[in-house]
Amino acid sequence: MKFYLGTTDHNWFNYLSKISPEDINFWQPGGGTNFRILQQGEPFLFKLKAPYHVIGGVGFFSSHTLLPLNMAWDVFRERNGSRSFHEFSKSILAYRNDKETLNPTIGCIVLTDPIFFRLEDWISVDPYMSKTGIVQGKGFDTTTLAGIELWNQIDLVIQKYSNIGLNIPGSPLSFSDSEWPGYGKPGLHKPRIGQGAFRVLVTDAYSRRCSISGEKTLPVLDAAHIKPYNEQGPHHVSNGILLRSDMHKLFDCGYITITKDYKVEISKAIKEEFENGKEYYQYHGKELLNLPNQIIEKPNSDYIEWHNNIFKG
Q: Could you tell me where the beta strands, DSSP code E, fall in the chain?
């Protein structure tokens, strides 16, 4: 199993440790390259920099994406580790040289189910990492002696805070691949995808384009649930579809639906109720433009069937 120690911003850590978020954005102010070190579900440790040089918590990797600063705030809000957009922007720009760029693109490492350790449970990383020379973080692997030694310490602390279901040999809380609903084989943890993580996963799975209209203007694109979350629809990509915001509203109200062969249906009720709808009827009967590449991420037929039952016909 792999895990990663990411060096944290103190203000980010302190703020998030007080609000118990379901998912968080471990932001990279410079954007950076795609974070490929971890698979979904593997642990991402929060390493507090000088003067502490300790591990203060853990989250579980969901995905990595690049977003304009204002979109990162829109998706995660206070789960970016700031009370306001102004404070968030100030934190980002403090690390960048192009301070005149008001809406830069930043890297977003999306983590679920974060746990913030109490002071007495912080773990020293002195035997494993140099205090100088490592700016962003360092990866470890439990196939190495150093990796397993460090992980054993982390594992003991994690189990004090949450029964999260360890997928390691001998664990009574482990789970099989057949129980795994995610997107790729789990490394350690079966993450509960939060709203922010769901939005990022769906947006990227649909190549940042509305699946009906092809619209690519990111601020007006919504990750829509096919079966609503308040109706026990899960935060899975297979229960999501990327839609332009107006189409999202019509979809939620049953004026638009999709078929099991991924074609669009537009209700005649739009014209009957609003004496309009020309913008939408042009898409009736057309195939969705851009489905996810992975079969497991494509709209699930059970969720589609649920939505077809609320369609106004």
A: 2-8, 23-28, 43-48, 54-68, 105-116, 123-124, 137-141, 221-225, 240-244, 256-258, 264-266
Distance CA 313, CA 204 (A): 30
How many angstroms separate the CA atoms of 3 and 58, rounded?
10
- 184: its two tokens: 């790729």
For the cut 80, the answer to whether the pLDDT of residue 183 exceeds it is no
User: pTM of the full predicted structure?
Assistant: 0.86
Residues 203-242: pLDDT tens digits? 999 999 999 999 999 999 999 999 999 999 999 999 999 9
Residue 147 sits at the vertex; the CA angle it makes with 146 and 152, to the nearest 5 degrees, is 100
Write the pLDDT tens digit of every residue in 39-70.
Answer: 989 999 999 988 888 999 999 999 999 999 99
CA distances from 276 to 175, 223, 265, 273 (A): 51, 25, 16, 8
Report the C-alpha gap between 189 and 180 in whole angstroms.
10
- Provide the 8-state DSSP code for 9: P
